[in-house]
């Protein structure tokens, strides 16, 4: 079932979804099942599986020179999605990114997903590599998420890169995109960021999942602003609790988001990570309950592999 159909079928009831990471290369699918098994109690209609672009490492050769080598530390997104659907009978949403793919490789990935019966995709530009200070697209790849949305939309119409293909099969992907209640860090201002988002919706995106936030007023204002420019698709809030003291510094630096002052004060009182985790759980529980009351269609939790924290939250919310 498409994400948008899941939302419609709920008839206004707030649902839950979880986002998971593929295991590091060499890991086993059992690590995914061990994490998801306890979360199935809350009946998520779909699970998101992230995709990670290649990274470069330098290996020293016997000659003493260093060779630049490309690796993917977390492969397996498509296979994990298929395994989730087979085991749990629920939908999986693979992330598809611009970084590291040519447009032909993207088309082939979409063909594979279609053959496997996966009809949801979250279309993202992706992050810059660790050693790059800005996003650099793959040669022959898409520079922006909107280009990826347009390619998926073309395939939904039966249009492929090879123009000699006539009467090509029309795919039927439901396309999600990212939204930023506090604006994307590369956008010059919130108004321009909304224009970029509107362009992705106009290009065929069906729903929005937000970047994590800790102040519900930011999300509610974001919805208001989206509606004011004609964005009518569902907007799913993305949530993540603080679980470690150091995240007060690391999360704003990595994700370009802000913490409310009340949350900062409470975390600053904590002496241990365990104390910070308890504060983070309670804050996210209250956030979740408020968002349910406000009519959020789905609460989307960024698990980062931490099943116990999200089980504790979901038990109090659903």
Would you identify the CATH architecture? Answer: Alpha-Beta Barrel
Compute the number of helices. 11
- Spans of at least 5 consecutive residues with low confidence: none
Give the domain tally: 1
Summarize the helix and strand pattern as letters.
HEHEEEHEHEHEHEHEHHHEH
CATH topology: TIM Barrel
Biggest pleated-sheet summary: 8 strands, parallel, barrel
Distance between the termini: 22 Å
Structural class: alpha/beta
Question: What would you note in describing this structure?
Answer:
The protein is an alpha/beta fold and about 325 residues long. The protein contains 11 helices and 10 strands. The strands form 2 sheets. Strands 1-2-5-6-7-8-9-10 form an 8-stranded parallel barrel, surrounded by 5 helices. The chain is globular, with a radius of gyration of 20 Å. The model has no long low-confidence stretch (mean pLDDT about 95).
In short:
With 318 residues, the protein is α/β, with parallel strands linked by helices.
Blueprint (SSEs and pairs):
Elements: H1 3-9, E1 15-20, H2 30-39, E2 46-49, E3 55-60, E4 66-71, H3 77-88, E5 91-97, H4 103-115, E6 120-124, H5 145-156, E7 174-179, H6 190-202, E8 207-212, H7 216-228, E9 235-239, H8 247-255, H9 261-268, H10 273-293, E10 298-302, H11 307-317
Parallel strand pairs: 1-2, 1-10, 2-5, 5-6, 6-7, 7-8, 8-9, 9-10
Antiparallel strand pairs: 3-4
Helix pairs in contact: 2-11, 4-5, 9-10, 10-11
């Amino acid at each position: 079932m498409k994400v948008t159909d899941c939302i419609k079928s709920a008839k206004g009831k707030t649902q839950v979804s979880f986002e998971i990471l593929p295991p590091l290369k060499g890991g086993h699918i059992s690590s995914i099942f061990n994490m998801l098994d306890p979360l199935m109690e809350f009946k998520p209609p779909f699970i998101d599986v992230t995709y990670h672009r290649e990274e470069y490492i330098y290996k020293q050769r016997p000659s003493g020179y260093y060779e630049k080598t490309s690796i993917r530390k977390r492969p397996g997104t498509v296979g994990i999605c298929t395994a989730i659907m087979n085991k749990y009978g629920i939908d999986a949403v693979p992330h598809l990114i611009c970084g590291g793919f040519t447009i032909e490789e993207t088309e082939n990935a979409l063909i594979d997903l279609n053959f496997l019966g996966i009809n949801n995709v979250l279309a993202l530009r992706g992050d810059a590599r660790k050693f790059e200070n800005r996003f650099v697209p793959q040669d022959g790849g898409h520079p922006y998420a909107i280009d990826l949305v347009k390619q998926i939309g073309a395939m939904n119409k039966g249009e492929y890169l090879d123009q000699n293909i006539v009467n090509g099969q029309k795919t039927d992907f439901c396309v999600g995109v990212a939204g930023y209640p506090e604006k994307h860090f590369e956008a010059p201002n919130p108004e321009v960021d909304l224009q970029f988002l509107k362009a992705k919706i106009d290009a065929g995106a069906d729903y929005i999942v937000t970047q994590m936030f800790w102040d519900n007023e930011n999300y509610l204002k974001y919805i208001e602003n989206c509606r004011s420019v004609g964005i009518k698709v569902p907007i799913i809030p993305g949530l993540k609790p603080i679980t470690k003291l150091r995240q007060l510094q690391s999360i704003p630096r990595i994700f370009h988001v802000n913490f409310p002052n009340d949350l900062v004060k409470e975390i600053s009182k904590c002496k241990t990570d365990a104390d910070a985790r308890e504060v983070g759980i309670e804050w996210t529980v209250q956030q979740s309950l408020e968002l349910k009351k406000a009519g959020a269609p789905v609460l989307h939790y960024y698990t980062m592999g931490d099943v116990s924290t999200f089980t504790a939250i979901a038990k109090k919310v659903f």
